[in-house]
Each structure stands twice: as C-alpha cells, then as structure tokens.
Write a structure and sequence with these properties.
Shape of chain A: flat
Largest sheet of chain A: 2 strands, antiparallel
Oligomer: heterodimer
Radius of gyration of chain B: 18 Å
Number of helices of chain A: 9
Largest interface: A-B, 29 and 35 residues
CATH superfamily of chain B: P-loop containing nucleotide triphosphate hydrolases
Largest sheet of chain B: 6 strands, mixed
Order of helices and strands of chain B: HEEEHEEHEHHHHEHEHEEHH
Order of helices and strands of chain A: HHHHEEHHHHH
Chain lengths: 253, 241
C-alpha cells in the first residue's frame, strides 16, 4: 500500500526548506503563541500573522491544495463552535431567528476560534511539510523537548503505516468471511480485531527492541551530523518573530 | 598452549544450553554446538523447533541455562558489548530490524552505538550499503522499500558494525524465487563465520557447508551439508520435505 506521509513535500527545495529546523520550529511556534494571545478585536494583527504565513507558504513552494486539504482537519471543531456559541453566549443580541438569538459576543468567539486555529494549523503544516520528520524531531530534541516525546513520535512515524497495513489485512480477511458492516451487531468482532491488533503491535515492539539491543542499543539514541544555525536562519527567525511581536505589542499603546 | 590455540579457532561454542519460555514451553534442551571460525552453518528445522530462540542466545538477548561462548568470551553482562559487536544478528522481519525514518539512520545506528566517530560512521554506512547493493538509498524511508530491498538494508545495518559472526534468521522468508536467489548470492559473498537459519534446502546448499537440524528444541543431526541433504528420512522427520 502507498501511504501519504505527514512530511510529504518536506524534501522539496526552497528557501523555506533550507532553513535550519530549529530556527523554523522556533519562529513558527513563536508566531502561534503570539497569535493565540492576541485579543480577537485586534483584527489587523491577524492580517499581519496571516500575511507572514502566506509569505512563508508561497516561498515554500508547497502546493496550496496540500496545505488547504491538511488544514481541513480543524473545520469540524470550528463548525461545532460556529453552530453553538452564537446562540448560547450571553450578550448583545444583533439578530433574531425565531426563538434563537444571535449575540455579538458569540460571533466574536467564533471569529476568535476560527482565525487562531487556522493560522496555527497552517503554521504547523508549513513546519511539517518543509522539514523532514527526523530532522524536525532532532530539532525539537536540541530545543530541549524531552527525548521521550520525540522518540515516541519517531516510532509512531515509522510504524503507524505498518499497523495500518496490518489492520487493513485483518479487515480484508474479515470481509472475505462475509462480515457485514452493521457495526452495532459486529461490535464483538471489531473489539477482537482491536485486541489482536494491540497484541501484534506489542509483540512487534518487543522484537524491535531486541533488534535494537542486538546492535548495541543501551537506552539513549546516538546522533550525528547536526546542523549549525547560519545567518540566514537567524534572519528568518528574527524577521518572523519581530514582525509578529511588533504587531502584538502595538496593541499596548 | 594447545588449548588456547584450539580455542581461538572456535567462533561459537554452546554447552548444555536449555531454555524455558516464561509460559513454561521448553524451547531448547541441552544444546551442544561448536562452530569454527569461517564456517557457514545452516540451522534447519520445522517451525517452532527453537531455531530463532537459539540465535537470540548467541548475543545475549535471551539467557538460558548452560554456557555460550563467542570467540572464547562467555556471553554475560560484562562481555555483552564486545559480544554484540562480534555477533551480527539479522532478524527475520525487516520491519523489526529497520525502525528509523531513513535507511541511513538505520545503518548508522549500530556503529554510532559502538561509539565510532561520525566521519567514520558516514564511511561505514556507505560501504555497508555498497556491499548489499543498495548504494544511493541513504535518504529513502524503509517503509517505501520493497521486501527484497528491506532485507538487503537489514543485512547492511549489521554489516556496518563489521561483525565476525553473521547470524541470519530466515533471510529468504517471503521472497520470490529470484529474490531468494539474489539474497543467497549476496550472503555467499560476505566474509566471516555465518549461521543461517532457513527452511530453504536450496539456499542452505548454496550458502553453507554444514547443516545442523533442530527438532523440538534438540539437535538431531549435525554434519556436512551434502550428507544431511541426501538423508531424506531425516529431512522428512524434520518437516523439511
């Protein structure tokens, strides 16, 4: 089976791809933190943040369709907020639809949630589609993220597809024996599949660990060829952080 | 003096090795096996005979009752680093062996664990991939390799550590006939002592000069490959034909 990788497009060549992963991660995380901390009324700040994201996206040459399709994952959450809060949040009524009252505060919440989640998710998509996953994990490690998290994420990246394949094979074997997908009747079968998938993964984990020990693994991952930050990386980092910070700080005056 | 020189000829010595799995299954019973340096030995037997269990004892992953010596060194906690450097174990399923996100990282894993400097590691990764005919695939992801390629890279991950003894668990498993032939040819070109676990009689005949047959945790035959492969009663008893 052919799989889509989380870091698809991460091996293209572009100015953004060539930035040192730590600089990229720091810059985009800074942007997210600043964006999330901005009050929703300061709409023009969001224009600045969106502008930064737009420029980085354009320079990265990652296809827009890819960014948009990945960004769709946040829509269900936005939708829930958009369907509920305008009617439930107390405040000044600006529209009446029968017995439903739409409040201004509710609408502001919807705007707040959507713009912040969209900018943040696109920043993360850009980070992951312009940095090969192993390099990103190494960058996070060098930024003092506990190696436990990066190790777990790295294994997940390697093995998730094998587990998906395994599940797919089990599903086919099940369907070949005339399984009908009316899940409520088949909950037991599905439960057993999940259990056996868990056991298989557990056994695989054991074997992977044995194979690692056979090659001298003693608990810490060895690393080599670390990149150094160059001036272009520092410029990238300061430019993005400074632009976002100045937009945010200008609100204080 | 004679004893020492005799000992130095010996790559693997297993004495009275028994192993019981935690669930009570008797996996190995009183195994005695000596392999001289440079020998190529086929370890054969039906499923569940204890072949893989035996290989896991050779570098101290499993610890049973009895004694295992590699190049005269007893397999124990003190020697474990040296032992794992001497014995290169290639697992049956390449997806167990290859856990990194790129081929290069996987091949570099062993040498880096041994504390070799990054420049030298770079060199040994390149050379190991060359040996198995996978040069140029450094940045590919193991998940995107074909099974035959995965098997080759698995072997490279071990060759990069330059082991004296190569232990391969079912190197031909799940490969098509051509893939199996290519893997046997590759293994044949590799230097050092070799212990090859296999059900594949052709592969055994092609690579090895001696065969050891394991049945229900016991060695039931040990001899030159020709003699063993021509004993059809024995092969049939061991479920090999």
């Amino acid at each position: 089976m052919k799989h889509d990788y989380i870091d698809k497009y991460s091996r293209l060549e572009s100015p953004v791809h060539s930035i040192e992963p730590r600089a990229k991660a720091l810059a985009l995380f800074a942007l997210i933190v600043i964006c999330v901390s901005t009050p929703p009324e300061a709409w023009w700040c969001f224009v600045v943040y969106a502008g930064i994201v737009f420029i980085v996206a354009t320079a990265s040459r990652v296809p827009a369709s890819h960014i948009i399709s990945r960004a769709l994952v946040v829509f269900p959450f936005i939708l829930i907020v958009a369907l509920v809060t305008p009617f439930t949040k107390e405040g000044m009524t600006i529209l009446e639809l029968g017995f439903l009252k739409v409040s201004k505060e509710g609408l502001i919440t919807v705007w707040n949630v959507s713009v912040k989640s969209l900018i943040s998710i696109i920043a993360l998509i850009l980070l992951s589609s312009t940095t090969p996953f192993p390099d990103l994990m190494r960058a996070l490690e060098r930024l003092k993220v506990p190696s436990f998290f990066t190790t777990v994420a790295s294994f997940m990246y390697r093995y998730v597809f094998i587990i998906v394949d395994e599940a797919e094979r089990m599903k086919r074997a099940r369907d070949s024996r005339n399984f009908r997908g009316r899940w409520i009747w088949q909950a037991k079968t599905i439960g057993q599949m999940i259990a056996s998938l868990f056991i298989r993964s557990h056994m695989r984990g054991e074997r992977v660990y044995q194979a690692m020990c056979s090659r001298g693994f003693e608990g810490t991952f060895p690393r080599y060829h670390d990149r150094k930050m160059k001036s272009a990386d520092v410029v990238f980092l300061t430019l993005i952080t400074l632009t976002a910070v100045s937009a945010r700080i200008s609100l204080l005056w | 003096m004679e004893i020492i020189s005799l000992k130095s000829e010996i790559a693997i010595r297993v004495e009275n090795l028994s192993y019981v799995y935690p669930d009570g299954t008797l996996a190995l019973q009183e195994i005695n096996l000596t392999v001289r340096k440079g020998e190529s030995v086929a370890l054969m037997g039906p499923n569940g005979a204890g072949k893989s269990t035996l290989t896991l004892h050779l570098n101290g992953i499993l610890k049973g009752k009895g004694r295992v010596e590699i190049h005269g060194l007893e397999v124990n906690k003190q020697n474990i680093r040296k032992i794992r450097r001497l014995v290169g174990l290639v697992f049956q399923d390449p997806d167990d062996q290859l856990f990194s996100s790129t081929v290069k990282e996987d091949v570099a894993f062993g040498p880096l664990n041994m504390g070799i400097s990054p420049d030298l590691v770079e060199f040994s990764v390149k050379r190991a991939l060359e040996w198995v005919g996978m040069s140029g695939s450094e940045d590919r992801s193991p998940h995107h390799l074909s099974l035959g390629e995965k098997k080759r890279v698995s072997i490279a991950t071990v060759l990069a550590m330059e082991p004296e003894i190569l232990v391969l668990d079912e190197p031909g498993a799940n490969l098509d006939p051509r893939g199996r032939r290519e893997i046997s040819e590759l293994i044949k070109t590799l230097k050092g002592t070799k212990l090859v676990v296999t059900h594949d009689l052709d592969m055994a005949a092609q690579i090895c000069d001696r065969a050891v047959i394991l049945l229900s945790g016991r060695i039931i035959a040990d001899g030159p490959i020709r003699d063993i492969l021509s004993d059809s009663a024995l092969l049939s008893r061991a479920g090999l034909i």
